[in-house]
Amino acid sequence: MAISAKMKDFVANGSMIRKMFEEGTRLKAIYGADKVFDFSLGNPNVPPPDIFKATLKAVVEADDPDLHSYMPNAGLPATRAAIAARLAAEQKVPVQAKHIVVTCGAAGALNIVFKVLLEPGDEVLVSAPYFVEYGFIADNHGGKLKVAPTKSDFSLDVEALEAAMGPRTKIVLVNTPNNPTGKIYSAGSLEALAAAMKKAGSRYGRTIYLVSDEPYRKLAYDGAFVASPLASCPDSIVVTSYSKELSLPGERIGFAAVNPEADDLDALMGALALANRILGFVNAPSLMQKVIVRLIDQEGRDKGIPACVDVSIYQRKRDLLAAGLKAAGYEFFLPEGAFYLFPKIPIVDDNAFLDLLKAENILVVSGAGFGAPGYFRIAYCVEDKVIQGAMPGFARAMEKAKKLGK
Ligand SMILES: Cc1ncc(COP(=O)(O)O)c(C=O)c1O
Fold it and tell me: pLDDT, tens digit, for every residue of 55-96?
C-alpha cells in the first residue's frame, strides 16, 4: 500500500462534496446539462466585478519587473498595508500592515494559523454545522476538532461552547456568515464567547485564540450587520479570502490578520510568515496581490468602486429558492448571508431522502458531513434557471417523502 492508512481513510470519507460534483458531471453526460440541477459545490457563479478584469489587465501591462518574483513570505508590503487599512476601517480594530500575512486563500490562512498555534493533541473547538475541511486542516497540524452544538436556529450556543472548553482547547473557530447555514452570529454572542474563552483560559493557564473564518463577510443580505469576532476578543485572528467576495476561488488569494492586542504578537507574526514558507505556499500569488492592492485603493481613495461582487444577485437567488422550497413544504431558516440554504430532511432516513432528490437529478450535500445529520445543504451560487428548473423536482421529492412517512 503506497498511501498511509490515514490518507486512505480520508480519501474514503472526505470527498463527499467532490463526489456529488462528479456525479453531476456523470448525470449531465447522460441527461444533458439542462436536466441536471447541481447544488453541490460552493463555486461562485456571479462573475468578478468589471473593475477586476480592467485592473488585472493594467497590472499585466504595467511592465513591472517584479511582477512574477519571490517576495517576503508574509506578502508584498503595499498589499499588506492596503488590506490592513481596509480591515481596520471596516472592523474598527487598529490592524496594521505588520499584522497581516497574505495567503493562498482562507484555507491557506487556516493552515498557517493552525500550524503555528497547535501542539499535538490540542483541540480546535467549533460549532456544528461547520465547514467540512476544518477536521482535515486541524489534523494536518496534529490538532483535533471538538464539536459543540448550535441553538435550534443555528445561532451560537455559547453555554455549549463554554462547557466544551477544556485543558486542551487552543482555538475556538467561528465562521460567520456560516457555511452551510447562512447564519450571521450576533455581536452579543461573540462578546459572550470571548468572555467564556477568557475564563477558560485563566482556568487552564493558557491563551485560547478565537479564529474567525470569514470569507463570506461581504455576502450579507437585507443590509445585515456582520459583527466582528476580531473586535470582540483581543486574542483573535481573522482568516479570510477573496474567493467569494470577488469570485476568485481559483486564484488562491486571501489573508490572515492578527489582532494587535493578541498575546505573543511578535512571535505569532514571525511564525505565521515562516509557516507560509515551509508549508510550501512560500507566498501568496504575486499577480493577485498586485491586483488586490489596486482594487482596494480604487475602492477606498480614488474612485469609490466597491471591490466586491454584486451581492444583490445572490440575495435574489436566495429569495427565489426560499419561495419555491417554502411552497413545496420544506422547513428552513432564511440565510442571512453566504450562498447556502440548509433545510431539514423531512424523513428519518437521510439517505433515502437524498436518493429521492437524486432521482429528480437534484444534487445536494448531506448535512452529516457538516456535523448536522437530518439536514442537507443547497449551494445556490448557480444560474437562476437551475433553481427554477429544480423546483418541480424538489416538490415531487417532498410529496414522495410524505408518502413514505416519518
Ligand atoms: C467556511 C469556509 N472557509 C474557508 C473556505 C476556503 O476558502 P478559500 O477558497 O479562500 O480557501 C471555504 C470555501 O468554500 C469556506 O466555505
Answer: 999 999 999 999 999 999 999 999 999 999 999 999 999 999
Q: Which amino acid is at 178?
A: N
Tally of domains within the chain = 2
Q: Picking from 7-21, 324-338, 343-357, which range would have the lowest pLDDT averaged per residue?
A: 7-21
261 with 389, same domain?
no
Domain check: are 289 and 387 in the same one? no
Cα–ligand 1 centroid distance for 249 (angstroms)? 8
**What's the grid cell of residue 236?**
483573535
pTM above 0.90, yes or no: yes
Measured between alpha carbons, how far is residue 207 from residues 125, 211, 262 in Å?
14, 12, 9
Is 333 found in the same domain as 189? no
Furthest CA-CA distance within the chain:
67
Same domain, 155 and 242: yes
Q: Is 337 in the pocket of ligand 1 (CB under 6 A)?
A: no
> Hey, what's the cell of 198?
477568557
Mutational test site, ligand 1, from 114, 126, 131, max ligand atoms within 8 Å of CB: 131
Picking from 269, 302, 335, the residue at the C-terminal end of a domain is 302
Query: Ligand 1 pocket check: which of 130, 173, 179, 251 to mutate, most ligand atoms within 8 Å of Cβ?
Result: 179
Alpha-carbon gap, residue 20 to 378, rounded angstroms? 12
